[in-house]
Each structure stands twice: as structure tokens, then as C-alpha cells.
Amino acid sequence: MSFFEYTKDKRFFFVLYFTLMLFVSLIMIVNDSRNLVLQNLLYTHVICFLSVSLYITIGYYYRRSFYLELNDLIESQKEDFPVEMLEPQNYEQALYVKMIKIVRDNHSKQLQKLIHEKVDHQDFIMSWVHEVKLPIAASNLLIENSTGKTVDFLVDKFEDELNKIDNYVEQALYYSRIDSFSKDYFITDIQLNQIIKESVKKYAKIFITKRIHFHMEEAQKFVQSDSKWLAFIIDQITANALKYVNDGGEIFFGFEEDHKEKRLLIQDTGIGIKQEDIHRVFERGFTGSTGRTHTKSTGMGLYLVKQMVLKLGHDISIQSQEGKYTRVTIHFPKIRNYYHFL
């Protein structure tokens, strides 16, 4: 900061100074001792001008070092702004430095969050591409080894691979839309039984192939939610259950209700989850020992389920005993919690 810029910042001080001097001059002019007026005016103005000049000069050099340091930091354009190097010389400067630190720290946190999300996004894309290539490769093998195979057999196998691709594409679609969720939902009364039946119908072939028994309460149940997003949530939970249920197993859809909430229970008789993995099953990209041992997985299905459930104002929990069962519960509070909406 130059001396001229500093004095420009003090323009209101100078306005006050000249106003006061004008007032003093008028008082002296109307004084009876007119022979002393000119001498007194000259004396007063010289003393005041010298005092103000001294005050401005000392003030400038007192603050100059701080302004120079700040200007050097700005011109250096460093990514990591070393605000700690600034040494405030008064309370006002200390507040500015504190404010800069807060802004910088908040920016750093947001930047780290974006970097983390970008890394997670890249991991998901890489994993997703790898998973999509598997059914494509399987389809190519079917074509290469189609000699001697019946048309019905080939169509059946191609249908299996296409269903896998369709599920992965649907995951990617909902993953890309989750940040704009608030623009794409409509809460209304939904008949749960119908959504569950559509989900089971979607995976009917797997139910039949693995001879998995499906149970659901016949009574009509209604909850408040978004039909499209809730259908995807139930589809993902059902698909996840089918992965880990052995042939001849069971999947049960139950319903509970009390004065606080309604609950949809989806329980399977699959291989279960290790206790040390239960608290992490909803983390992004987490597959656990079960996912690594028994089937390939992107680890995104239950993560998306968790995010969507919370955005809809619901909640979700999971209980499991390794080797016996896994139960996923979706909680629908009767008094909706709008703080979940983003």
C-alpha cells in the first residue's frame, strides 16, 4: 500500500479535520480581539496540520509492514495461503486475519471433500466398468460356443447377462442423480405390496432358478414415500438378498407398526454378515469379506439405498447372524423428519 492509498483510506478523517478547523476559524473570526485573529488562525492551523501530518505518517509506517506482507501473500498466489505469517498490529487486523483463517479452513475442507468424492467416483466408475464387462464377456463366450446349443438355451443365458447389465446401468443412473435428488421426488401414499410384487417379478427368474421361496403379508400396507425411488431401494435390497441366499432359501417381506413409525422388514436365510462388517455395509464401495468371497460387487448398492432412504426422510437398519439370516429394516416415521431433505 502506497502513502497516497493510505491517505485515501483516511479521507473521512480529513473531512472531519477540515470541518473542525473551519468551525474553530469561524469562532476565532467573530472574536473581539480582531488584531490577533490572523496570528491565531495561522498558529492554530500550522500546529493542527503538523499534528495531523505526524499522526498520518506514523500511522502509515506502523501499518505498512502488515500491508506489505498481505500484498506479498496475495501476489504470490500460493495454493496454501500462509495466513499465519501475518502479524496483526491492532484488534481490527486481528479480526481480519481470523476471518481469513476461517474462510481458508472452510475452503480447505470443501476442497478435501470434493477430492474425496472425485476419488470415490473414479473408484466406482472403474469398478462399474469392470462389472459391466463381465456379462459382456460372458455373452461373447456364449456366441463363440453356441454350436450345438438350442435357441431357447442361448436366449435364456443372454437374458441373464442382459439383466445383470441392466442392474448395473440402473445403479449408475441413480448414482449420477443422487446429488439432484431434491428436484426429482414426489411424496405420496404408496401401496407397499404392489412395489414388492413388482420387485419380485423383476427377479422372478432368479427366484425360480435358485428355488428361493418368497413370503409376504397379504394385508395391504401403505406408507408415505416416492414410488420410483422406493422401488429402486427395494430392488437393490432384494437383489442383494438374492446374491447371498443359497438354493432353496427364503426371503420374507414383513411389516410392523407402532405409534412412532411403520417398518418394512426384508429378511433372507442367506449366509449372513460378520459382526465386524455390519456397521460398514452402508459405506460407499464397501464389499466386506462376504462380497469378496462369494460374489463380485461394486459395493454401491447398499450405499445408494442408505443415501436415498435418508433423503426421503426415512431410516434404515440391518441385523444379521453369520450363517443364519440378514434382516434389513426400512423405517417410515409417522411424523416426517424434513431435516433429511437436501
Automatic annotation (TrEMBL):
SMART domains: HATPase_c. The chain crosses the membrane at residues 12-30, 42-62. It comes from the Bacteria. InterPro entries: BphY/WalK/GraS-like, HATPase_C_sf, HATPase_dom, His_kinase_dom, Sig_transdc_His_kin-like_C. One of its GO terms (biological process) is cellular response to phosphate starvation. It is a multi-pass membrane protein. It catalyses: ATP + protein L-histidine = ADP + protein N-phospho-L-histidine. GO terms for cellular component: plasma membrane. Residues 127-336 form the Histidine kinase domain. It is found in: Cell membrane. It is an enzyme of class 2 (transferase). One of its GO terms (molecular function) is ATP binding. Keywords: ATP-binding, Cell membrane, Kinase, Membrane, Nucleotide-binding, Transferase, Transmembrane, Transmembrane helix, Two-component regulatory system. Its EC number is 2.7.13.3. Its main location: membrane. This is histidine kinase.
